[in-house]
# Entry
Amino acid sequence: MADYDLVIRGGTVANACATFTADIGIRDGRIAALGLGLTGGRETIDATGKYVLPGGIETHCHIEQESATGAMTSDDYYTGSVSAAFGGNTTIVPFAAQHRGQSIADVVRLYDDRAGPKSVIDYSYHLIVTDPTEAALKDELPAAFARGITSFKVFMTYDKMIVSDEQMLDILKMARDNGGLTMVHAENNALIKWMVRRLTERGYTQPKYHAVSHPAASEVEAVRRGIALASFVEAPLLFVHISTDAGARAIADARMDGRMIFGETCPQYMFLTANDLDRPGAEGGKFCCSPPLRDVKTQTDMWRHLNAGSLQLYSSDHAPYRFDETGKLSAGPNPPFNRIANGMPGIELRAPLLFSEGVNKGRISLNTFVALTATNAARLFGMDDRKGAIAIGYDADIAIWDPDKAVEVTAGGMHDNMDYTPFEGWELKGWPVTVINRGRRIVDGGELKARAGDGEFLARKPFDPTGFLPPRAPEMNTATNFGADLF
Ligand code: URP
Ligand code: ZN
Ligand code: ZN
# Structure
């Protein structure tokens, strides 16, 4: 009888902390052995000349999700997870969005029905909370955390989603007390609305004015306010899709003070600029996302912040709306910038872009690549007992990368349900050629090997505050003297 179901031989294995040569023995979906000269596999993969890396963990993507304005993403859990798999990912954590008036329990049920039968890779969700009622805060969110859905996103902008600062304090405290991690979309709502009004009143409605209407100051103010609120109640807070140097620096400063503050950026802020919004006709609408694309300096700033660790996560923010009347052009063929669905696709290209432009061009190490595509997300989102590393006992979630494989990006070459990619024509070097989830080959030789429903729901651990300063700043001690439950 074979010792292993699968042996991967001769590859260069890399984790976030080390690179080494080893064979990997896989049994019952888990890594059972790391060694040299391993034999006894029912199947064998020769990975000579390849990198053998932890499967990607994509923790910011919008799949089969209605926006607050009613637009449905073009990807469902089948096409979204297939596209993720072709991009080297073995786990996705999309959003399960509450719309006002909906109970959290109903939202979870809805997304269970959407994801379970369709996802080809492992999945969990973050909730989106727009209606923090007493029931949601006291019972429903703690119940979701207990079920392993231990993170959720709130918005400091968008009239249909925004939470007030007072609600934010309630939310942060509830999450802190129950082992949840709050994620936040940080932009100043009033500033954006003021700019949108002034621009549209003057007829400045082309897509390029989307960036003008969401200035850096809007993000920076909201990040600083979010840090102040989270610090006051000593709660963890993760700022998603950071697009400014000053926002990332505020996060870095807070971390230096021992605050439980985290940050994420996305490929669009590293590889595109606001000039892309100025393409002919309505085409700039393909590049409308919030926060908006910035400039060339921001691109280098983001590489620096990822290398320095001020930002820990690099996610696609895949928010797929087609360039037709179902998506970007739902308000007509030449919509004003404030009526174009926000977001762009990118789940398949997230890791290949970072590999090609980062690892292959010497901007980041292979180990930082692993940290940014898998390990850091596993740690932050409570999956690091089984995902995000190549280690004995861990799930056999592995992407085998050919560092020399050249790929020209085309919309037709993507596996999502989109009709464009923002990266059309890009020449990338380095590609995941074999992807394995819990020991099963899911992508191999350019072909999908997995079936709808093969992915499993992942119950995640509570947020782990280990490594941050002990709680209670001096001013808090005074306040807590008034009663143990005040904070
Ligand atoms: O424009 C974007 N990023 N759309 C997706 C929703 C969000 O706020 O992340
Ligand atoms: Zn957002
Ligand atoms: Zn998003």
